[in-house]
């Protein structure tokens, strides 16, 4: 059966070498694309693992160099965590909502995620890797460099993984984007039966991140770069806001309804750990 022109979506995993702090990530990606004989075209989406971006930007912390605060010690004791890790998570969090053994449920950069994106996996021994400090900016810088080289209007997504409520396992999440509309507004359009859609908006950025996460893996696959071709995106210089105010979020508004204030290491944070 033949496909209509433009309806096929192709997802290509690209092997990356081990990235080191201070490396020029655009150069690493250009070499990898050349080795795989893949040339970027208009409306391609380049998805990069957040760990790759973070390591290139030097977002690595030595665990033992972080002195746990009293709050970090309490959280570590309650949730069976390394207190040094708990301190790093606390510093990276805007909000701690609770936790389970080994993990805190946090909000950081407007995203509800485990341990504020702080990860020991695939981080050098004795260290933790943080999210990029400004993921949207990182995506924009990478996009600008690749566009100069390839002369194509592309999108970039920085991808991490997270868990979702009451579901087992991880899925992809876009923590930073550049070059395309991340949200498709379905409101006021008609459904299959002619009814006007009231509230639905599709998060294309997270959909693309999950598609990339499917092939990136979580261990030693080294597929830290995914190129998606044929995705139904609209290129744009403006960036859609992907996060929702906690008071308007079905899940988030319930989580933060009973919090207590404590002072963290560098700024005041809301922490719920009872």
Spans where pLDDT lies below 50 across 5 or more residues = 1-5, 260-274
Q: Report the radius of gyration as a whole number of Å.
A: 20 Å
Characterize the biggest β-sheet: 5 strands, mixed
Average pLDDT for all residues: 86
Proportion of β residues?
25-35%
Q: Biggest sheet: strands side by side, in what order? A: 1-12-2-8-9
Helix fraction bin: 25-40%
Distance between the termini: 58 Å
Instruction: Tell me the number of helical segments per DSSP (H or I, 4 or more residues long).
Output: 7
Per DSSP E runs of 2 or more residues, the count of β-strands stands at 14
The rough form would be described as: globular
Please characterize this protein's 3D structure.
This protein has 274 residues and is of the alpha+beta class. The protein has helices spanning 25-35, 50-56, 70-79, 83-92, 135-150, 204-216, 252-255; strands at residues 10-14, 45-49, 60-62, 95-100, 103-108, 111-114, 127-129, 155-163, 170-178, 183-185, 201-203, 225-229, 260-263, 268-271. Residues 1-5 and 260-274 have low confidence and may be disordered. Strands 1-12-2-8-9 form a five-stranded mixed sheet. It contains seven helices and 14 strands.
